[in-house]
Amino acid sequence: MSGIQRRTRKTSLSFQAIVDHAAPWVVPIALLIFWQWASSTGMLPSRFLPAPKAIVSSFIELSRSGELWTHVRVSTMRALSGFFVGGGLGLVLGLLTGSSRWAETLLDTTLQMIRNIPALALIPLVILWFGIDETAKLFLVSLGVFFPVYINTFHGIQSVDRGLLEMGRTYGLSGWALYREIILPGALPSILVGVRFSLGLMWVMLIVAETISARSGIGYMTMNAREFMQTDVMVVGILLYALLGKLADLLSRGLERYWLRWHPAYQAAR
Amino acid sequence: MSSVFASREGLTRQMPVEGRQYSRGVAVSMRDVSIALGGRTVLEKFSVEITAGEFVAIVGRSGCGKSTLLRSIVGLETPQAGSVTLGTTLQGKPDVRIMFQDSRLLPWKRVLQNVTLGLEPSFTPDAKNVLSQVGLADRAHDWPAILSGGQRQRVALARALVHDPSLLLLDEPLGALDALTRIEMQELIESVWWNQGFTAVLVTHDVAEAITLADRVILIEGGRVALDEFIHLPRPRTRGNSRFAALEDRILERVLQRRSVELRGDKTRTRIEEIDAH
Q1: Would you call A164 an interface residue with chain B, using a CB distance cutoff of 8 Å?
Q2: Residue A146 domain flag
Q3: Residue from B105, B117, B141, B162 to probe the interface with A (highest A Cβ count within 10 Å)
Q4: Chain B interface residues facing chain A, Cβ-Cβ under 8 Å?
Q5: What is the C-alpha to C-alpha distance for residues B179 and B200, in angstroms, rounded to an integer?
């Protein structure tokens, strides 16, 4: 009797599950169908927005020629090198100001002042300093990435449980051992929040930098397509940014899930 | 046994109890220790002599300086005046460990790695032994987050025991546990103390717990020793015992003295004089 009951409930549950999973996609799919229909009837002119089918075929064509992958590779390299330079500096300075009162007094106020300048407001100066080549892009991405990592590292170190530090000292930990066993792991959740923020900003800064001027990369491909009114290529470029942004986010979530697997908030997900 | 424990100036006391080792414990001597925290005097010319291997419980109201006392023994607070001296062991400098009210396990290390904190990897077998001693051998590879409060305190105890301490300081380690877990933990602490022979100093606000575990209960009031009572009950002690209950009443009465005086006036004062005369 109970077996039958359980089975019935299971079936209804799985049906419910299908509905639950499908529901969020109903509206996007309907929109897509409407979009395709509007384009094919000429209601939506292709120089305004190309049909979904045109975008897909342009994507296939671009990736077959290899042109797309060159641009993706160039953009990714720019993003990553900027991320490592800016994020690395942010991490080192955050660790420094977080751990040493002296460094905090000396540096933190200055850094907080610079943080309040929107990075994009510096573009005219950046162009003046570095011209429009790779250095300018690297600088902009690094600058954008620096502050989220810096602030969250600083905050993470400051908020390491004093009780744990005290315990560590009574167990003979000091210097690097105390840092490795307690301070760094304690600050890690906060540092990873900074990394996630900075990955988002990394793409924003890159898009701006590549849109201003570039000879390669996704931004170049998009801007170049605009000159020739290739709206389908433009949309492919925009979608690529979205995709890469999502990938970066997934990557940082994966890191969180691995490094913070001790954390109760991540244990349910495991 | 009670005759052995009877002496109040018992610096040279022996504890000739079958099966109990004393070799490992160290004596603790605090002389005229004064500590002020944030401008407030916590301990004032505080002196106490603790014999090697003794189990001392320190009771008192919140903020009376019990924890500060422990922290000064382990070196987490430095006295402004006076001295804290520890005896030496055969191995030289005594190993002092402290257990806090919260377990202070590192959440990012598994149970076993928490126990071996600050030790070479070669201590892993020892750590496993100690874990099975506290009944948690099968939880060695769990994260602390999924353990219960009592289990966490047992891991913290194991982490202290793996160092073979000469002196174990317990800063209300059972304060946050439920009543049943407390009793289990008290039994565990008593048995490891009994078998390993270290000196133990327990800070607690629970007079019954102090009487259950300690050879000697010290009450701190106004930064000084207000009562120093040897407990002559045979171990293991049970709360049902009438002598236990009488002792608990007496100490509790003394702890609550100030409030009692306000409430009951002269009658209580006479009773305290009786206690002092005792």
Answers
A1: yes
A2: yes
A3: B117
A4: 74-76, 97-98, 100, 102, 104, 106-110, 117-118, 143-146, 159
A5: 22
Rounded to a whole number of angstroms, the distance from the CA of A188 to the nearest CA of chain B is: 10
Q: Do B104 and A163 touch (CB under 8 A)?
A: yes
Ramachandran class of B5: left when φ > 0, alpha when ψ lies in -120 to 50, beta otherwise? alpha
Residues A87 and A149: beta-carbon distance below 8 Å: yes
In a domain, A255, yes or no: yes
Secondary structure (DSSP) of A99-126: H-HHHIIIIIHHHHHHHTS-GGGGHHHH
CATH number of B2-95+164-240: 3.40.50.300
What is the spatial distance between Cα A134 and Cα A138, in angstroms, rounded to a whole number? 6
| Total domain count, chain A | 1
- A96 is in which domain, residue-wise? 66-267
**Contact at CB, B98 and A170, closer than 8 angstroms:** yes
- What CATH number did the domain enclosing A108 receive? 1.10.3720.10
pLDDT tens string A47-105: 888 999 999 999 999 999 998 999 999 999 999 999 999 999 999 999 999 988 899 99
Residue A77 covered by a domain: yes
Residues A65 and A47: their CA atoms lie apart, in Å, by: 23
Would you list the domain boundaries of chain B? 2-95+164-240, 105-160
Does residue A250 sit at the B interface (CB-CB below 8 Å)? no
**Residue among B97, B106, B145 whose CB faces A264 most closely:** B145
Of the candidates B133, B137, B185, which has an alpha carbon nearest to the alpha carbon of residue B164? B133
ipTM above 0.85, yes or no: no
Q: Collect all residues of chain A within an 8 Å Cβ-Cβ radius of residue B99.
A: none
Q: What is the pLDDT of residues B146-163, one digit of tens each?
A: 999 999 999 999 999 999
In the chain, the amino acid numbered B124 is T
Structural domain includes residue A71: yes
